[in-house]
Design goal:
The chain has 405 residues and is of the alpha/beta class. It folds into two domains: 260 residues, Aldolase class I (TIM Barrel, Alpha-Beta Barrel); 71 residues, no CATH class. It is 39% helix and 19% strand. The longest helix is centred in the N-terminal third of the chain and has 18 residues. It starts with 28 loop residues before the first strand and ends with a helix. GO terms for molecular function: 4 iron, 4 sulfur cluster binding; coproporphyrinogen oxidase activity; metal ion binding. One of its GO terms (biological process) is porphyrin-containing compound biosynthetic process. Belongs to the anaerobic coproporphyrinogen-III oxidase family. HemW subfamily.
Length: 405
C-alpha cells in the first residue's frame, strides 16, 4: 500500500468545486480509472494496491458498480460547474486492471462514455500484467473501445523478475503482446532497470527482447527504493544491494542508444515511441498540467487548478459512495509559486521542453550555465525552450534545482 495521503483542506461531502473555479472548455479532459487489486504485491511497489487478504470487506466483484457511483458523482459536479467535456484520454491503471473481468472494465468505460462522452479518436489504455492477458480478454476490451494496452514486462531475465517479485515468465510477455496486436491495439511495454543482481548484460537482453516484440512504445524506469516496501526492508537488512547510480546511468544510456537505433524517439525522460502518434497522450496530459479526474480509491484529480485525492482503502471508498458522499479525502489549490515550480518540474522532462519565458529572471540567467555544462540543448535554448540533452536527462533533478533555486 502507498504512503500517507497529502495534507490539504477538507473536501466537502458533496464533492462540489469552489464557486470561483474557472474551467476552460478548450483544455483537454482526461479520465483515470484506478483498479487497486493485485494477486501478489511486488517488492518494489508502493502504489495504492491490495491483495485479497488486505481488502477487509471490499469486494472485487462489486468494484465496477462502486466506481460507477463516483463517475455519476463526477458528472454531477462538473455539470454544476458548467464544465462537461468529453474525455480525450481514458486510462485504466492499478494495480492490475485485467484482474477484473473484461466485462467489468467495459462497463466502467461505458459509464465514462455516458457521463462525459469520449472524444472521437480518444486514446483508451488498459494496463495489464502479462499473465492476465488472453486473446479473449483483449478482443472483449477492443470491442468495448480500448485501443491501447500497456504491458508490464519489467525484464526478460528470470532472476531479475524474481528479484522484483514478478509472477510472469518471459514467454507470457510475447503471448500478451501478440494477442494485443492481433486485436489491433497499440502496445506499450514497461521495463525497470537497476534491480538487485541485474547486470548490464541482463539489461541489454531485456532491451533486445522488448525491441523484438514489435511494440509501438517502450517505457524504461530506474528502480527507485520507496520507504515501507519489502525491497526497502531487504536493503536495510543487507539482504540485497541498493541500486548502483552509476550502473543505472549506464543502463539508461544503453536504452537510449538502442531505442534510437531501432527508430524510437524519446519524448519524456523515461518514455520512447515510434513516432508522435504512439506517444502516451494520457501521460503527456499529466506532464502538461491539463485537467483530469481520477476515479477510484487513492486516485488524484486536477480540474481548473484544484487538486483533490480520494480515501485510500477500497472499503472506505465504497462506504463513502454507498452513503451518497464524495470519496475525496482532501484537496488544495496550489499558489502561483507552487504552480511555477511544478511547471518546471514536469515540462522540463518532455521533448518539447519548457518555455524560457515561463522562468523567473534568476532561472533565465541559469540557462546559459546549463547549456555550457551540456545539460540543456543550446539550439533549443536559442529558440526559447529548455530541452534536456542526454546528459541532462540523466541529471534532470539537478537541472530542476538550478532552475528553481
Amino acid at each position: 500500500m502507498a504512503g500517507p495521503l497529502p495534507i490539504g483542506d477538507p473536501a466537502p461531502a458533496d464533492g462540489r468545486l469552489p464557486h470561483d473555479i474557472r474551467i476552460h472548455p478548450d483544455v483537454a479532459f482526461g479520465v483515470y480509472l484506478h483498479v487497486p487489486f493485485c494477486r501478489v504485491r511486488c517488492g518494489y511497489c508502493d502504489f495504492n494496491t491490495y491483495t485479497s487478504s488486505e481488502l477487509r470487506g471490499a469486494r472485487q466483484d462489486q468494484y465496477a458498480d462502486t466506481l460507477l457511483r463516483e463517475v455519476a458523482l463526477g458528472r454531477e459536479v462538473l455539470a454544476s460547474a458548467g464544465a462537461l467535456r468529453p474525455a480525450s484520454t481514458v486510462f485504466f491503471g492499478g494495480g492490475t486492471p485485467t484482474l477484473l473481468p473484461a466485462g467489468d472494465l467495459a462497463r466502467m468505460l461505458d459509464g465514462v462514455r455516458e457521463a462525459f462522452g469520449v472524444a472521437e479518436g480518444a486514446e483508451v489504455t488498459v494496463e495489464a500484467n502479462p499473465d492476465t492477458v488472453t486473446p479473449t480478454v483483449v478482443r472483449e476490451l477492443a470491442a468495448a473501445g480500448v485501443n491501447r494496452m500497456s504491458i508490464g514486462m519489467q525484464s526478460s531475465v528470470p532472476h531479475v523478475l524474481a528479484a522484483l517479485d514478478r509472477t510472469h515468465t518471459p514467454g507470457n510477455v510475447r503471448t500478451a503482446v501478440d494477442a494485443a496486436r492481433d486485436a489491433g491495439l497499440d502496445v506499450s511495454v514497461d521495463l525497470i532497470y537497476g534491480a538487485p543482481g541485474e547486470s548490464l548484460g541482463d539489461w541489454e537482453s531485456s532491451l533486445d527482447e522488448a525491441l523484438s516484440l514489435g511494440s509501438d512504445h517502450i517505457s524504461a524506469y530506474a528502480l527507485i527504493i520507496e520507504d515501507g516496501t519489502k525491497l526497502a526492508r531487504q536493503i536495510k537488512r543487507g539482504e540485497v544491494p541498493a541500486p548502483d547510480d552509476d550502473l543505472q546511468a549506464d543502463m539508461y544510456e544503453m536504452a537510449d542508444q538502442k531505442l534510437a537505433a531501432a527508430g524510437f524517439d524519446w519524448y519524456e525522460v523515461s518514455n520512447w515511441s515510434r513516432g508522435v502518434e504512439h506517444r502516451s497522450r494520457h501521460n503527456l496530459a499529466y506532464w502538461r498540467g491539463t485537467d483530469w479526474w481520477g476515479f477510484g480509491p487513492g486516485a488524484h484529480s486536477h480540474v481548473g487548478g484544484l487538486r483533490w485525492w480520494n480515501v485510500k482503502h477500497p472499503a472506505a471508498y465504497a462506504q463513502r459512495l454507498a452513503l451518497g458522499e464524495s470519496p475525496a479525502a482532501g484537496r488544495e489549490r496550489p499558489d502561483p509559486e507552487a504552480r511555477a515550480l511544478e511547471q518546471v518540474l514536469l515540462e522540463s522532462r518532455i521533448r518539447e521542453g519548457l518555455a524560457i519565458d515561463a522562468l523567473d529572471a534568476g532561472a533565465r540567467r541559469a540557462v546559459a550555465g546549463l547549456v555550457a555544462d551540456g545539460l540543456i540543448d543550446g539550439a533549443s535554448a536559442i529558440r526559447g525552450r529548455v530541452v534536456l540533452t542526454l546528459q541532462g536527462r540523466l541529471l534532470a533533478d539537478a537541472v530542476v534545482r538550478a532552475l528553481t533555486e
